[in-house]
Amino acid sequence: MLYKRMSSAGAFSVAVVIVFVVVKAGIWGIHMDIEVVDNGIRLADIYFPVVCGISSQSYFVHNSILALTSAHKYPSRKVRDVGIAYALIAATYILVGLAYYVCFPGGKKQISDNVLDVIERGDYFAFITIVLLTLKLVFTIPLFSYIIKMQFMRSIMRKSEFGYQWTVLTNVIIITVAVLLAMFWPHVGQLLRFLGAVSGGVFIYILPGLVYMAVQRKENKLTWYSILFHSSILLLGLAIFGLQFSVPFTI
User: Fold this and answer.
1) Virtual torsion, Cα 34, 38, 43, 48, nearest 10 deg
2) Of 20, 27, 96, 131, which is the most exposed, with the fewest CB atoms less than 10 Å away?
């Protein structure tokens, strides 16, 4: 499909972001002071629920790859390709997140939701990176629209095809919600952690265990340690959601 090929161009933007972070990290050098001070790196912090929520969101959003690989030309290679994709994504997250955090010269709390916000004016490399990221979003919006329509139609309406009106409606809703959030609550990190705690909690911690135990019960294979294990995972998801309210909101 055309939009799938367009979204592949976003890989170039990701490569530029990696180069941007590596170059900046090389210029800044390592600024890592493992002490309990304002400008250092804390070994433990009360804000750890934020990381749990955002990590859940990251894990949840990647289930969209199932919709993309549903029409794989070579189904026998699907497992291999998905594995490679997850490995590359993990490497990107680790490299960008760790290098930027360790090498950032200011206080670590000064790093905003959008890491490009802390770049000083006149940095042309940062400007080029922002432009390429904007193009990446333009390329991926049709893809996200397709994924939402596929998951909504198949899981709720039990349909595998949708007409032009559904495409228009989905695009209008996505763009409207994104624009309103950008206008009135432009805090990406806050949004991601709550969405991750809710959607990730349901689809990662709660539903899989409940479905698995229901299947075991139907087959008379449900045991007490299976109930204990899956219930602990369910409680973990609920705890992550509840802990989001222990962290101060950004207003």
Assistant:
1) -150
2) 27
Residue recorded with tokens 């299976």: 226
Most confident of 19-23, 165-169, 244-248: 19-23
Look up residue 45 and give its DSSP letter: -
Q: For 83-134, how does the pLDDT look when each residue is reduced to its tens digit (9 = 90+)?
A: 888 888 888 888 888 888 888 877 777 777 766 666 666 667 777 777 777 7
- Full-prediction pTM beyond 0.85? no
Q: How far is CA 23 from CA 12, 103, 210, in A?
A: 16, 11, 46
- Per-residue pLDDT of 218-242, as tens digits, reads 888 888 888 999 999 989 888 888 8
In a 10 Å sphere around its CB, with 0-12 CB exposed, 13-18 middle and 19+ buried, how is residue 166 labelled? middle
Extract the tokens encoding 209. 């265990």
**What is the pLDDT at residue 251?**
46
Q: How far apart are CA 201 and CA 212, in angstroms?
A: 16
Rounded Cα gap, residues 123 and 129, in angstroms: 10
Tokens of 10: 């976003």
Q: How far is CA 162 from the centre of its chain?
A: 27
Please give the Cα distance from 153 to 155 (Å, whole number).
6
Nearest to 201 by CA among 56, 42, 5, 78: 56
For residues 147 and 145, give the distance between their C-alpha atoms in angstroms, rounded to a whole number. Answer: 5
Considering only residues 99 and 75, tell me which one the structure prediction assigns the higher pLDDT.
Answer: 99
CA angle 114/116/122 to nearest 5° reads: 150
Angle at 77 between CA 73 and CA 79, to 5 degrees: 120
Please tell me the total number of residues recorded for the chain in this structure. 251
Strands (E) across the chain are located at none
